[in-house]
Amino acid sequence: MAIISASRRTDIPAFYSDWLFNRLEEGYVLVRNQYNPRQVSKIRLTPDVVDCLVFWTKNPWPMLERHGEQLRNLPFPFYFQFTITPYGNDIEPGVPAIEETMETFVALSKEFGKRRMVWRYDPVLLTDTIDIDWHISRFAAMTERLAPFADQCIISFIDFYKKMEVAVRKVGCRKISTEDMRMIAREFSAIATSHNLPLATCAEAIDLSEFGIGHASCIDAKRIEGICGGRCKVGKDKSQRKECGCVESIDIGAYSTCRHRCLYCYANHNPEKLIANSQAYNLDSPMLCSNVLPDDKITLRAMKRSVDKS
Asked: Cα Rg for the chain, rounded, in angstroms?
């Protein structure tokens, strides 16, 4: 059995929930190998092989609105990695206003319980107008609203990936010094602690333990054990960065398909490809924003048990 990630590569709840629930009904999904596109994995999505489903999203409202009843009746546990940041449309063009997304967060927490809700304030970035005080003020206001409904808050500092560096430089993004990271961590920790909200970093090398901030596992063995009621047996996901604490999962998304178009996003660096992929979206296809081609080689993915409930 396996942990399914939906998805680090795109926002399935925001844009592709019709496709997802079609795939769940069909019981499988096809995923292209990002390095060798003609290699395709067939991944089963049935309760006998799936232990847990992890949603990554900035706007799950479309999924909740369209498929709320199906979500309530999913045959396996799930939880949300829900990113809410206070940036404007110059940085996150397709993301709804935070007032809307915070209301959705609260609604999901009330419906499914705070144990399934992780708030991501991710990434922290600095410009000439977005300074440390700006972040502290907004993080404080957002924490006051979300802390009663979130099980944890995860933060990270912007990484300057080569493919998106030009875009973030256009809005004046600068690299964050270690001193700035520590200052932000100290203030964020004080705010989170005052609201009893655990705070951790995602895939960061810096040690912030003196502020009570640990290193997060977003695909989290302990969270999955708590939700699933068993012992998580899988180890670290070796396909992720060295600093990443996630356990192994299977991602069913596709790159260059997310219409949020966030400037800092590593998964969406080619606007022309995004347009082409979006136009290729077919909710009845077994692949996200693609179709099976004659020379595709489809292989059934081996899925080992992730949670031992014995």
From this structure: 19
Task: Give the Cα separation of 82 and 77 in Å (integer).
Answer: 16
The alpha helices in the chain, defined as continuous H runs, are 12-15, 17-26, 61-72, 98-112, 132-146, 165-170, 178-194, 221-228, 271-279
Whether residue 104 has pLDDT greater than 80: yes
CA distance 60 to 81: 10
Residue 310: the pLDDT is 66
Instruction: Retrieve residue 60's tokens.
Output: 């799950």
How many structural domains compose the chain? 1
Those residues whose C-beta lies under 8 Å from the C-beta of residue 42, and which sit 6 or more positions away, are 28, 29, 30, 298, 299, 300, 301
Distance CA 235, CA 282 (A): 35
Task: Tell me the pTM.
Answer: 0.96
Look up the domain containing 43 and give its range.
2-308
Residue 85: the pLDDT is 99
pLDDT band for position 220 (cuts 50, 70, 90): very high
